[in-house]
Design a protein that fits this description.
By secondary structure, this protein is α+β, with helices and mostly antiparallel strands. The protein is 24% helix and 24% strand. This is Sarcosine oxidase.
Length: 401
């Protein structure tokens, strides 16, 4: 299946084999394009690391609710096609004083969701049984669930019809204004090329899509762009489930303040024998990669342990493991997302730079949008920096996929 524009004749590079890069590469495969995917390490070993992520529809910006809804549909399509579970069917429970407002946003977007009482909460998240009752209302996002992160990375990496280039990219360079000449027949684009220079190769492409996480701003700077990412580091902790794993174990977001001063999120690992818990927030990091307050990561982990002791009696509070990863927030919010462009519009030497945080859940819909832009379609308006996607005060719109 080819998209209008360059289609299968496109030569496209994707820099970064985390979940966004792999989703983009697989979406290009869907369009009949064989991308080169550059990754210096093991696919999925950067900001996409860990064994689970929370898929949620709920966001402050209604546009992100729509993107999440579209992404959930693509997760289902890929799950059926690849023959592996990518998102659990256990749902996600959100607790907090703003639950009814969030519920209204989900219903407005056509996302199945409803309020739940304390009894049903204990059925959905059996780990809460035996704790003191909280006072905040709770909501079930029925089609949310735990993302099977490692299964997704493995399945997509295997399904991409292209080359995984195990090399570090030092620079990307877009075609300059007016570069190139008319294509075959005197029309239909130019032969201008974007350039990738890695440790052991130099290659030219019609389009380069940079999904390099913490490395994206530096590559963008080399191409003449400033991508305003705020660096940080985050910690989450994995705990064992006491006794036999429950048949259903929903994800959890708790912003009630009943058991901790901040908010937490949690998602089950495959098999529901363990639960990964994180406290919201991060430790600031400098552009050179140094963590401003290394002890702060320990405090975030300690906060997760304290929450488990108070709020989740069904977990052993002695940690099984820790995951530490970088955060890359945009100035307008922790869920902000945008795509910057260098070079000409369209597949004639353009470079697209993806930046944002909490992107795992959105990766399938985002990857398809990036793939379409890579082969000649217009970049979705929501993804342009001026749209400030993820800022709740921005005007709303919905994705097309």
């Amino acid at each position: 299946m080819n998209s209008p524009g360059m289609g299968s004749a496109s030569r496209v590079a994707v820099v970064g084999a985390g979940i966004v890069g792999l989703s983009t590469a697989y979406a290009l495969t869907e369009l009949g394009v064989r991308p080169d995917v550059y990754e210096v390490g093991v696919p999925g070993n950067g900001q996409s690391t860990g064994q689970s992520r929370l898929f949620r529809h709920s966001h402050e910006d209604p546009r992100l609710v729509a993107w999440a809804r579209e992404s959930r549909a693509v997760w289902r399509t890929w799950q059926d096609r690849l023959g592996v579970e990518l998102v659990s069917g256990d749902g996600a429970v959100s607790i907090g004083p703003d639950t009814e407002r969030r519920l209204a946003l989900l219903r407005q977007a056509g996302v199945p969701a409803r309020m739940v009482d304390a009894g049903e909460l204990a059925e959905l998240v059996p780990l809460v049984r035996g704790r003191a009752a909280g006072s905040a209302p709770a909501m079930l996002d029925e089609t949310a669930g735990a993302i099977r992160t490692q299964a997704a990375i493995r399945a997509l990496a295997a399904a991409v019809d292209g080359e995984i280039v195990n090399d570090e990219v030092l620079s990307v360079h877009a075609a300059g204004p007016g570069q190139g000449s008319p294509g075959p027949g005197g029309s239909g684009g130019t032969n201008a090329r974007a350039q990738v220079r890695s440790v052991s190769r130099r290659a030219d492409y019609d389009t380069v899509v940079v999904c390099a996480g913490r490395g994206t701003p530096a590559l963008a700077r080399g191409a003449g762009l400033t991508v305003p990412v705020e660096f940080g580091a985050h910690a989450r902790v994995t705990f064992a489930v006491r006794g036999e794993p429950p048949a259903r174990l929903a994800c959890l977001q708790d912003g009630s303040g009943d058991f901790t001063a901040g908010s937490i999120y949690a998602a089950a690992l495959p098999g529901s024998r363990a639960y990964a818990v994180g406290v919201s927030g991060h430790v600031a990091a400098r552009p050179d990669g140094s963590v401003a307050d290394p002890d702060g990561l320990g405090r975030l982990a300690d906060g997760a342990v304290a929450y488990v002791r108070e709020a989740l009696p069904g977990l052993d509070p002695d940690p099984l493991g820790h995951v530490h990863c970088w955060t890359t927030e945009l100035p307008w919010g922790p869920d902000g997302l945008a795509v910057w462009r260098a070079g000409p519009e369209g597949p004639a030497g353009q470079v697209l730079f993806v930046a944002g945080n909490n992107l795992f859940k959105h990766a399938p819909a985002l990857g398809r949008a990036l793939a379409r832009a890579a082969v000649g379609e217009e970049l979705a308006a929501d993804l342009r920096p001026e749209a400030r996607l993820g800022c709740p005060t921005s005007p709303g719109s919905a994705p097309t996929a």
